[in-house]
Design brief:
Elements: H1 3-42, H2 51-86
């Protein structure tokens, strides 16, 4: 296996990782921003208030995006298995 092939596999893995994790991270970012704005407007400075809405939103997004995430991971695994079967 050459260095270029290893870099290609690593690049594909990083791209798949970003594709799978981006929806959840964006949902967490948006919910955190909205809760922070509400806290700033109402002057409620409770630090633990951010966690419950963020966890609920991320779990909801996970249920919503799970088919997309599973498809992306399965296609990556298929590409890796094809490389293994073909000998590199």
């Amino acid at each position: 296996m050459t260095g270029a092939a290893i870099l290609d596999i690593a690049r594909d893995g990083i791209g798949t990782f970003l594709k799978v994790s981006a929806p959840l991270m964006l949902v967490a970012l948006a919910v955190g921003l909205i809760v922070s704005l509400v806290q700033a407007l109402t002057q409620v400075q409770e630090q633990t208030l951010v966690y419950v809405p963020k966890i609920v939103a991320v779990f909801g997004a996970m249920l919503l995006f799970l088919p997309f995430m599973a498809d992306a991971l399965a296609s990556y695994m298929g590409r890796i298995a094809l490389r293994i079967a073909s000998g590199g």
